Amino acid sequence: MLTNNDLITVPQAVALIIMTVLEVGLLSLPREVATYAESDGWILVIIAWLLAFICSLVLSTLIRRFPGETFIEYSQKVIGKFLAFAIGVILIIHFVLATAVVIRTFAEVTNAFMLPNTPREFIIIAQMLLTIYLIRHGIEPTARIAEILFPLLLVPIFAMYMIALPKADFTELLPVFNTPIKTMAVGSLYTMLNFFGLEILLILGPYLKRPDKIYWTMFVSVGVIALIFLFIVIITFSVLGVQPAKQFIWPGMTIIRMITAPGRVFERLDALAMALWTIASFTASNSMYLAGALTCFHLTKAREFKFFITILFPWIYFLASLPPSIIATEKLRHIVRWGSVSVGIAVPVIVLLLSIIMKKKGETA
Amino acid sequence: MGKRFVTILIIVFILFSFTGCWSRREIEKLAMATIIGTDKVTIDGQDKWLISANMIKPRDLASQGPLGGNGSGSDKPTVLVSSIGATAWEAGRNLAARLPRREYISHANIFVIGERLARDGVDQIIDVILRSKDIRLNTWVLVAKGQALDILETEPEFEELLSQEVMGIVQNQPVASKVFTIDIKRFANQLITPGQDAVASCIEIFERKEEGQSQPGNSSDKGNGQKAVRLGGTAVFRKGKLAGWLNDEETKGYLYGIGRARQGIISLSVHELDKKDVAFAMTRASSRIVPRVEGDEISFIIDIKAEGDLQQHDDTRPIARPDVIKAVEQKAAHEIKALVENALNKAQNEFEADIFGFGNRLHKRYPQFWKQIQQDWREIYPDIKVTVNVEAKVRRTGMITDTPAVN
Fold it and tell me: Which of A89, B37, B216, B303 is the most interior residue, by most CB within 10 Å?
C-alpha cells in the first residue's frame, strides 16, 4: 500500500502537526479574539484549546481504531463506498483550498511588509515550487523538515515577543469575564477555527510509526499550539492595547514594528519576523498540499502519489490568485476554516460513532 | 541530449527568476526623514495638508566620520522639505518635486502635529499613521504650539540633528517629571479606548537671549537670540480634538495622578509660609486610582505614595529631627495633593476631558455598571467627586544632616 518505508516518528509527528497549524493566520489571531470578546480574548483561546483537544481526541481515536489504514479505507467500511468517495472528494477540495489560502495570505503579508512591488503571482509560484520540490519526496522528508524548522521557528518567535514584554501593561487584560456567555461561546468556536490544520490527522494515520502513542502526540501538539496562541494574544493585548489590536489587520506583526532589539545590532526586527513567517507558512502549505495529494492517492489507489502533486498545482495556483483583495482573502480563509470544521470534526465524529455502533474495527487493533 | 537541454533551460529560467529583490531600495537612493511635521493650512478656501520633514544629507553626515575628514563644515546636515496636498500622502509624495531621492520615513522617530491640525481633530492623522507600514509605532508624538513646520525649522543646539535633540529631550524628561511623553502606540490607544481622553506632550519654540535661557513657559518674549525648541506642558484632547494645554505645574500634577512621575523636585515652604525653603527630591512615586460605586454615585480615590530625599534646606533651623522631617513629609504630601487637584480641576472643569482615564478604570473594575453609563459618561464626568490621598516619605537627607551655620 505504502510507496516505501514512509513512517514518521512521534517527535516528527508533533512537529509536523504544530507547523501545519502555525501559519501566517496567527498574525491576525489577536484581532479576531479582540473583536469577539475584547479583553476576554485570551479566555477564548483557552476555551478553544479545550475544544480543539476534544476534536483531536476524536481524530486520534479513529487512528487507534483503524491502525495502518487510510481514512478513505476505513470510512468505506463504515459508511459505504459511495459516501466515502464523496467525502474523499470534499477532503481534496478542502486541502486544495487550504493550501491556496495559506500561500495567498503569505503572499499578502510579504507584499505588505517586504516586497511591495513584487507581483503576487511570483511570490505564490516561487513558494509553490519550493513546496512541490519538497513534498515530491514524500511524507517522511516533509516531517523531517518540520522537525528541523520547528526550533528554528519557535525560539526566535518567543525571543522576539519577549523583547516587547517591558512595554506590556497587563491592566489591558481587564476586565475579565465581562462578555455574555453567548458571545463567549460563539467567539471560542470561531477561535477554534484557528486550529485548522488538525484535520491533517485524517491523512497522517497510516504513516505514524507509533499509532499507539497518538493521544500523547496530540496532547503535546495541541498544547504547544495553544500556548503559542495564548502567548501571542496576551503579549499583543498588553503591549498594543485591546482597542488598537482590533484595528490592525496583523497585530502580531505590528508589535514587531515597535520594538527595538537590545544591543543596537538589529534595530529593526521586521526582516527577521518576515523570515520566520516565511518558514511558518512554508511548512503549513507543505502539509496541506501533501495532504491533498495523498488524499487523491488514497482515493484512486494509484501506484504513486507524485503524479497528483502536478495535477493539483494549477488548481491551487488558480484559487490562490482568485481573491481580488485582502478582504476577499480573509473571507476565503473563513470558508476554509468552516470546511475544516466540517471535515475535521463533523465527518470524523460521524464515522467514529457509526464504527462504534457497527462494531467495526481495524484488523490489528 | 534533449533531456539535458531541457534541464539546462530550466536551470537558466530559475536563475533568471532569482536575481534578487525586486523591491529593493538602496540606501544611496533614499532620503531619510528624521522628524516629520504635519499641519493643516487653508489655501484658496480649501483645507490642505502641509507635510514637512527633515531629511538627512548623507554626504555631510559621512564626512564627519573618522574617515571623511572635515567636509563642508558650515552646511546643515539635514534639509527641511515641505509640500502641500489634498491628502497627507499626496502631500508626502509631492515632496518628490524637490527630492532627488525617494523619501523614506521608517527611521523618523519624532512626529510633530501642528496646533491647527490638532484642533481640527487628530483622528485624521491617526488613520494616516496606523495605516502606514512605514511609520513605526514607537515614534514619539509631540503637539506643536503653532505650526509644526516652524518647529522643524529650528536649529539643534546640542546634537547634530534636530531629531536627535528632540529625542534626547524626550528621553531626559523623567528626571523632572514635568512633561508627559507618549509614543504613537499609546497615543492611539488613548484615542480609541472608551472612557479615556488623549494627551500628548507639547513642543514649542523659544528664543534664546544673549545670556542664559528665557523664562520657561514664556515662549513669546522676543529676543534677537537664536530659536530653540523646548518641551513644556501637555496638549489635552477632548474627543480627539485639541482642547487646550496644561502648563508645566499642571502636567506635574497629572503625572503624579496617573503614576507616571519618576523623579522630580517639589519645593516646599516648611518654616515660613511665603518662602519655599525646602526642596523635596522625589525618587519614587506610585499612584492607584480606585473607582467607587455606591448606588448611582460614582467617586474615585487617587492614592499616591511618594518617596524622596531632602535635597536642599534654605534655612539654618534644625531639620534632621523626626518631628521636622514629619512636617516636611506633610508639607510634601500637601503640595503634591494641591498639584494633582489643580490638574484634576482643569481636566474636569475647563476641558471636560477624561485624561486620567477614570472611565477606563470604571470599565475595568465595574464592567456591568460601565455599560449602563457609557453613553452618558461625558455628561457625568465633570461632576464626579475625586478624592486625592497623598502619603509622602522622606528617606534621606543628602550628605549632611542639619544645615551648617555660616558665620
Answer: B37
Question: For residue B47, is pLDDT > 60?
Answer: yes
Residue contact A171–B368, C-beta within 8 A:
no
Q: Which of these ranges, A226-230, A361-365, B347-351, has the smallest mean pLDDT?
A: A361-365
Give every strand in the sheet of B264-268, ordered side by side: B264-268, B278-294, B297-313, B385-396
**ipTM computed for the complex:** 0.75
C-alpha closest to that of A295 among A284, A311, A308: A308
| Sign of the C-alpha dihedral computed for residues A88, A90, A94 and A96 taken in this order | positive
pTM over 0.80: yes
Q: List the domain range (segments joined by +) for residue B117.
A: 26-209+223-246
CA geometry: angle A258, A154, A277, nearest 5 deg? 60
pLDDT score of B303 more than 90 = yes
Window A:161-220, CB contacts with B under 8 Å: 171, 174-175, 178
Residue A131 in domain: yes
Cell numbers 504635519 correspond to B38
Tell me, yes or no, whether B232 and B265 share the same domain. Answer: no
pLDDT value at residue A317 = 92
Residues B60, B189 share a domain = yes
CA A12/CA B122 separation, integer angstroms: 52
Check if A54 contacts B (Cβ < 8 Å).
Answer: no
What are the angstrom distances between the C-alpha of B275 and each of B13, B268, B279, B314, B403? 85, 8, 12, 9, 17
For the stretch B212-247, pLDDT in tens is 544 554 444 444 567 888 888 889 998 888 988 998
